[in-house]
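Researcher: We're reviewing a set of sequences before deciding which ones to prioritize for further study. For each one, I'd like a predicted 3D structure that I can look through quickly. This is DUF951 domain-containing protein. If possible, include the structure in token form so it fits the rest of the review sheet.
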Amino acid sequence: MERKQFGLGDVVEMKKQHPCGTNQWKIIRMGMDIRLKCQGCEHSVLIPRHKFEKSLKKVLVHAEENK
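Model: Here's the predicted structure for DUF951 domain-containing protein, in token form for your review sheet.
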């Protein structure tokens, strides 16, 4: 199984919804942990990279397309 390619500034779709009702998140920090900002309510969360990669569904918008 190939690994999904993602980068800083990408908007991604996760498997589970946020309580506000959306499952779209923007990657705002990368390292051993990934910080995500909810596109619905602007709440940010910090999760381990392994858990992030496991629950990532797909990349919706790459950062290069946002510019």
